[in-house]
Specification:
heterodimer; A: mainly beta; six-stranded mixed sheet; five-stranded antiparallel sheet; about 55% strand; B: mainly beta; seven-stranded mixed sheet; about 0% helix
Chain lengths: ~110, ~120
């Protein structure tokens, strides 16, 4: 089955800096890669996703890149704000075939 | 415009009791997933259901755990004879089936936090 590795497990940045979280996956057939943000005591919220037919996707301050050859994908957050502080999870699946497999999460702390 | 609704949000049980967690998917969604999250860990897949049908239960423990998604009403995750190791947050998610394909986009509820004393 699919295995997703996520790094780093914790990340501390100053407000305004950029943050990058990286994930690798094992199953070359995976074609859907979402990122979720989970605030304390809440459920995960989908913030951005990318499918294997594109290499990059951007939505305001967040962007995701995908390297299918290397089987890794990354989340980039620019101009970080304290409200970006949360746990971020990457995941991978084969659309219509398999369920999402999640990484172990990255706790992002943005200091004012 | 309700999202995925889970209840109860918090549940306390003593060892040996039963826990029942309920999940109503987003309007128009016909697929439901249950995930378990242990403290400071990621989300572990448990089971994937359609109405009246279990699609994939490869993540479910073989004993004491069961799930259903009846034709009418919410999906239910049932844990019999709970043990302390069952203490965790249980998240339900739903997805849309469109054009003959599950889109794969999961929308999560706020979770049910089970504490076993």
């Amino acid at each position: 089955g699919e295995n997703v590795e996520q790094h780093p497990s914790t990340l501390s940045v100053q407000e305004g800096d950029s943050a990058v979280i990286k994930c690798t996956y094992s199953d070359s057939a995976s074609n859907y890669f979402p990122w979720y943000k989970q605030e304390l005591g809440k459920g995960p919220q989908l913030i951005i996703d990318i499918r294997s037919n594109v290499g990059e996707k951007k939505d305001q301050r967040i962007a995701v890149t995908l390297n299918k050859t290397a089987k890794h994908f990354s989340l980039h957050i620019t101009e970080t704000q304290p409200e970006d502080s949360a746990v971020y999870f990457c995941a991978a699946s084969i659309t219509g075939y398999s369920t999402l497999t999640f990484g172990k999460g990255t706790m992002l702390l943005v200091s004012p | 415009n309700a999202g995925v609704m889970q209840n109860p949000r918090h549940l306390v049980r003593r060892r040996g009791q039963e826990a029942r967690l309920r999940c109503s998917p987003m309007k128009g969604h016909s697929h439901v997933y249950w995930y378990r999250q242990l403290p400071e860990e990621g989300l572990k897949f448990m089971v994937y259901l359609q109405k009246e049908n279990i699609i994939d239960e490869s993540g479910m423990p073989k004993e004491r755990f069961s799930a259903e998604f009846p034709k009418e009403g919410p999906s239910i995750l049932r844990i019999q004879q709970v043990v302390r190791g069952d203490s965790a947050a249980y998240f339900c998610a739903s997805s849309l089936y469109s054009g003959g394909t599950n889109t794969g986009e999961l929308f999560f509820g706020e979770g049910s936090r089970l504490t076993v004393l």
